[in-house]
Amino acid sequence: MVGRLAPEAPTPHLRTLRYFSRTGFRASHQLQTGVRRGGFFVWLRRIMSFVHCHAPAAQPAAADWRLVVQGDRLLARPAPTTEIVLPDGAALAEWNANASAELHLGILNDRACWLHAVASAETAAPAGWEWHDTRALIPLLTAAQFQAVSCARMLHVWQNRHRFCGSCGTPTVDVAEERAKKCPRCGALFFPSASPAVIVAVTRGDRLLLAHNRNFRPGLFSLLAGFVDPGETLEQTIVREVREETGIEVGEPRYVTSQPWPFPNSLMLGFRATYRAGEIAVDGKEIEQADWFHRDALPDLPRPGTVARALVDAWCRGG
Prior knowledge:
Layout: H1 12-23, H2 28-33, H3 40-47, E1 50-52, E2 65-70, E3 73-76, E4 103-108, E5 111-117, E6 130-133, H4 134-137, H5 143-161, E7 173-174, E8 181-182, E9 189-190, E10 195-204, E11 207-213, E12 224-227, H6 234-246, E13 249-261, E14 266-277, E15 287-294, H7 307-316
Parallel strand pairs: 2-5, 10-14
Antiparallel strand pairs: 1-4, 2-3, 3-6, 4-5, 7-8, 8-9, 10-11, 10-12, 11-15, 13-14
């Protein structure tokens, strides 16, 4: 006789999906206003120090965080060494900067967080604050700060690129119910999006494949990476990119981790893969040099805090 297996207890992820199926995605403003005091969204704020949410009715407060961006720069306290201090509304109260309307991003460490975009590179930082290259701050940003900064930069890019309808050229308007822009003439909708890209740690025995891109600073080597082409799977992208850039054939791609990369709007998907065949022959276009490196003889690597460095460090630890 074939018996029926008892149903397994629902996992936290499954419980989350069931919660959403019952309540819908309608609580972004509740995160901001605190209307809902229990349930999933309180739990979400406990486990995530940054939560993106759309709250069009929210109003900026002096205690709210301000993520002030100008090009590739971010406003923070001068000379950070161990942590990044970001400004709140009170710190910028006397600053007369020509900035776009502030955009609510979500909740960062239990406080509302706003994008404050400055157009001119000539704008001086307020007293006690300084402009920093955002990439240089990555090793010092907390995970929550990096997520919030990524959200701010990517939404800023989305806003700028969709001021006009891509179909008919009409100026777009904000949608109240969700994070989207709509064309009032033809009805086209434009949602924030991220461009998926893979980055892969290719191993050959006890060696790792690293490459120098022509856009890197001298001496810097990193993992191979590339954008996903239309119609491709992530695994197909890995095989194609490694073959195109180095002539190496790889197999057994295994997903490891991911990271938003807001320069300007990518989602990096980190993988491991193993060597199958071929000898290194760089393409000469993007990749100028590539080689196999042992753990005890690594070249200059990407900054800590990047998914590339995380994959390399995991491999060095034997992971």
